[in-house]
Amino acid sequence: MVDxxxxxxxxxxxxxxxxxxxxxxxxxxxxxxxVAKDRNQDRNxxxxxxxxxxxxxxxxxxxxxxxxxxxxxxxxxxxQSVADAIKGYPLGTxxxxxxxxxxxxxxxxxxxxxxxxxxxxxxxxxxATTQDWANKQFLPLVGGNVTGAMDWxxxxxxSTVTHRFWSAGPPAEGDAAxxxxxxxxxxxxxxxxxxxxxxxxxxxxxxxxxxxLVPSILIFGGKDALNALTAEGRYVKSVPVAPNKxxxxxxxNADGRLxxxxxxxxxxxxxxxxxxxxxxQQIQTFVVSGDNSGIVTTKFPVAFKAGTVPRVLLRINxxxxxxxxxxxxHIALDANYNEVIDNTGFTWAATYFTSNSAGxxxxxxTLTVMAIGERQ
Length: 376
What we know:
Among the domains are: 75-123, Seminal Fluid Protein  PDC-109 (Domain B), CATH 2.10.10; 237-274, no CATH class; 281-374, Immunoglobulin-like (Sandwich). Helices cover 12% and strands 23% of the residues. It is built from 5 helices and 17 strands. It has helices at residues 36-52, 64-71, 80-85, 131-137, 228-234; strands spanning 11-12, 18-19, 94-96, 102-105, 121-123, 161-165, 180-185, 196-201, 249-252, 258-261, 281-290, 295-299, 311-316, 326-331, 345-353, 358-360, 365-374. Strand 9 and strand 10 (258-261) form a beta hairpin. Helix 1 packs across helix 2. 8% of the residues are buried.
């Protein structure tokens, strides 16, 4: 565009610009001459953007310059002629090339060509994210697919990480309470997997899960979960060896007796009051034999409680000399006529009887013993 008019008769306004002025003969004002250059530069300057915007000049359309300004207001195509005309693009100017690729000027009065070696332009979108890159890096708020490892929470500052989940929608009043809350806290710095994960929800449903693995525990006084392997080794086998049956129920009946159920029968166990002797007592029954039943000391297979004297019942076989002879076994007496019995054993002898005589039996014998006393 040419400078302000320099034709004869111009005037200078308050801003120092050379301006046209009308002719006024009454005031002896010459007026400013109109020359072709002044008129042509106005029209050419106005039509330039109209044509550049792709419009065909139309004398009946007063909106063409406005349309051109709107159309050309987007990022302009880089032009060497424009660069020369404005003595270089300013710092930060954004232009596009024919590809189209966008460039940002890194220098003031930039006359270099974008993309050329040594140019002072950089790819405007080199640091910008693309939709493809964003799709691979971020999860849309409406959901999507996450692949690869994910880290949650701070790696440098201790904190509690809370995830809340909603599914039921808002309540009638107030804020919507979450349907489930997952809280991670209490980790140990430098040690993996030492935190606590707490899940607060109504129902934690694992019914569709194929397998849930629980670690084996050694302390049974806490709230640790018990896995099947530990339970099978610690408690009654769930699948006994045949022909045994699995006990499915244990309960106490109205008489205070224990009842076992296996799904088909329910046998009732005896209580201590049903036993023929006190639970602190024991019965020992055994057989001894020898060559001489004169005086014999016999030991109990298991000693009774120290300091106690059990009751002893004896039965001996008949005299082997004759079926007509019989004999009895009896506990020996000490000098004070006390039976020789203590908690470890007893001393006894045998006496034979015939129809007209009796005497000590000192022959082979087989003795059956039953002893009842206090257990150790």
